[in-house]
Structures are given as C-alpha cells and as structure tokens.
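Support request, please re-run this one:
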Amino acid sequence: MRTDHATVERRFDGTFKSYGGPQYVGNSFSTNGGPIYFDSSPGTYRSQSAVYKAIDRQTYTVGWICTVKAEYVAACELLDEEHPPLPTLSLNDSNAYTLGRIGDHHVVVACLPRGRYGIASAATVAKDMLRSFESIRIRLMVGIGGGAPSEKHDIRLGDVVVGCPVGRTGGVLPYRFGKAVQGKEFEITGSLNSPPTVLLTALNHLDTLHERKGHRIADTVQAMVTRNPRMWEKYKYPGAEKDQWYESSFTHVDSNVGCDIGCGYTVPPVIQRKQRSLDSSNPVVHYGVIASADHLIKDATARDQISEQHNVLCFEMEAAGLSNDFPCVVIRGICDYSDSHKNDEWQGYAAATAAAYARELLETIPESQVAGSQYALDNVSDVGEFARAE
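Re-run finished. Output below.
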C-alpha cells in the first residue's frame, strides 16, 4: 500500500510501520536519522536527516461519523492506512479524529463524545468536522441500529440497512414519541434531504455488483478479527442460533438474565424463520427508510406500527441531526430488533458489517467523481459559522 510519502503496514499491537519514509510507531515518528519533532510549518515533521511532509487536511474528502466505540473501532480497523494526527485543527473543534485512507480516498473518522448520543450531539460533531476539514465532499454515518423485521422484510441480526429515498422520504424519517396526534403515540416531525447524487449513484452501482457477484462483507469482518485477535471475542459472528426474533406481544422476562435463560428459544414465542440458503449473500443488505429520533426504541408494538405505516426498516438515534446540514448516506448494522429483548451481544459484529459495507461503497466511487462533487460545507445552513480559512 503506497501513498505520496510511504508504504504503511498495520501491526497487531495497533502501531504502524512505514517503508520508504519515516516510521510511525505508536504515537511518535522516527527515521533512520533520528527522532522527529514538529517543525514550525503546519503539517511538517522534521528529523535530523529528513523532512516528512504530512498530508494536508485539505486532502481529506470523506467524512465518516460514528456514535459509539464499537463503531469507531471497526471503522479504524478497516482503513487501508492510518495517518498521524494533524497538528493544526480549528480552535472551535472539540472532536478527536482518526485519519487514514481507503482505496483512493482520504478519510476522516470521528465519534460522538462518550455518553452523549442523539440528534443534537451528532449535529455538533458533524459541524465541528466541517470546521477543520472543509474539503469534505463525501459524508457517511456508519454504525448500529435496531431492525424492524416483518413478513415483507426478512431482516436479521448482522444485516446491513442503508438509508435511501423511498417515495417522498429522502432515506431518513424523523419522528418523535410522547405526543398524541389523532390517537397516535408518535408523530413524523418533517422530511430530510436525500443523500447527494454521487452517493445515490454509488449505492445503485454497488447494489448491482452485489446482485451479480455477491459482497465481501462477511469475509472482510472475518479477516479483521483474524488479523487482530484481540477483537475476536467482541466482533466475531455470534452465530445464527443467537439470532432470535420474538413475537411482538412477548416482552423480556427478566432484565437481570439473558434471553437464553429468561425467555428461551422455543417456538412460540420465538418466530420461526427459514434458514438462509448457503448460496445467499449473508449478511443481507437492505435499502430503504431509516427512522430517527432522540429516543431509544425498545417496544415491539411501536416498532411494528411505525414500520407498517412508513415502510421503515431500521431505527436509530442520530441521523436526523445530520441529513440537512450534512447530507450523507446512513449505514446501519442490525444489532437488535428494537424490542425489550435488546442486548449488546451483536453490537460488535453489526458495527463491523456496517463498516465493511461502507468500505465497499467507497471503493466503488472514482476519485475523479469525488473531485467534481459538491463540498459538504456548501450544504450548511449557517455558512457564517464555518469560515473556510480560520
């Protein structure tokens, strides 16, 4: 793998080694000539025998936002390269970033602050990212979500749901609980922009490739946990026997024990489904509407009601904060069924399948197409907040 400055190799211990240039080990650089220290010029690392010019922040054109640590870990592990941090960022930016490359694209990955979830937090992270990386053109929201399985949509744990326009919906449907509207227990709070055309084109192209040739999602996740054994326990495929979809009327019995002990795996209350054929692409990628609210849904009855009325495939808590000022593709790995049986067992694998799909999506987009697309900053409603040169 080669960049303008060096070839970088990822090590199992999380450090990196570069060939043909300075070596990045842990949080420091070294070269054959001695230690590297910061030069007064932004983005420059200097040693006794060589000057290393770091990639400028203007080079990064892909913004990738995660919500929780498992999503962030999966995103970072699937980078082709990981770059050193840049010394100069906006003074008003409170994000922490991992920088790297996937294929031809330079990627900025950020995660929401620990314990701060929801629409407002996601919007803040996105705006801070654009303050420091004003050249971003491709935007992704990648992570986990709760599925809405039905007779119409065979959604299973570990599957991937990609938000895309359906009818008048741009791909993300904002809703709100707690306010009765004509007898309903929720209300739709508006409509959000669809992803940019360059991303919609890439989605269609990738979906076509998958139908013709299959995808590499499961192989990518398996390679990731094999390459880095410390990730095996949390990010490996849990197994089909751990994927149980319960009848909507059956609530979790005891919050202190898992479903295997408290609820059981008998039919009913477990809904029996056909085993997926060996020649099918597993996990399955679904395209459609993702519902987003500042509320964690753990109610199968509400899930079914919203899903049936609006053809929703997935529920999550952040995308509604991004889709207007940070138009993006929302990619969610399914880690639960948005019911009372929700637990964390599938979170690592679901985060990894979503990241693996996002990686394949970026690989289908030519660099020249990105260069000709609109800057993300041009979509921000209050452009005054984001000076291009700070």
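The chain is about 25% helix and 25% strand. The longest strand covers residues 138-147.
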